[in-house]
Amino acid sequence: xxxxxxxxxxxxxxxxxxxxxxxxxxxxxxxxxxxxxxxxxxxxxxxxxxxxxxxxxxxxxxxxxxxxxxxxxxxxxxxxxxxxxxxxxxxxxxxxxxxxxxxxxxxxxxxxxxxxxxxxxxxxxxxxxxxxxxxxxxxxxxxxxxxxxxxxxxxxxxxxxxxxxxxxxxxxxxxxxxxxxxxxxxxxxxxxxxxxxxxxxxxxxxxxxxxxxxxxxxxxxxxxxxxxxxxxxxxxxxx
Length: 239
Known about the structure:
CATH architecture of the largest domain: 3-Layer(aba) Sandwich
Helix content: 25-40%
Structural class: alpha/beta
Order of helices and strands: EHEHEHEHEHEHEEE
Oligomer: single chain
Strand content: 15-25%
Distance between the termini: 35 Å
Number of helices: 6
Radius of gyration: 17 Å
Shape: globular
């Protein structure tokens, strides 16, 4: 294990939560969670329900650092690559502040990337500039095996956004269980839907897990435009 504190790049979704859980399981000294709140759609970050990350962090028992939309200035950036780099700047600035603040600096960061070279190369380059290691336990693993492992560990995963052919309004707010995974595999075969939503087909929120002291309870409404939808959380609290 490297010297220094570990920081978890954290959205509250299943992938970043799994990376955090596995890091804690290994005994990595995770001292901060860092959540970026994108303003609108993002090339780099999980978008919906990131405001609930503060509840998740409270349940996990690790302090949260939040990077706000006002920190972004990518309106005039013409292409996705440049936008991704611009979006990374406030995150890297926050990590540099933590590197100076934490005893021993930052020794490593956790990341929930599964297949996205776009995200992974940027996170690895950022970590290299910070002289920190990257722990990415989902990277290039079998998607169904990962999903089964999350459920076997006791993760409770809710779908908070869908944007893919074959995923209708009934998926909004649905708990990701074995039956849902079977359906997602069938949708993958028919339409190419990624079983973990890696292509943006759906987004999730982990409402309970073995690393959390209390589960997150939600009250919400669904918003559906005929092809895609999201849940609009009206209240959220720790049980």
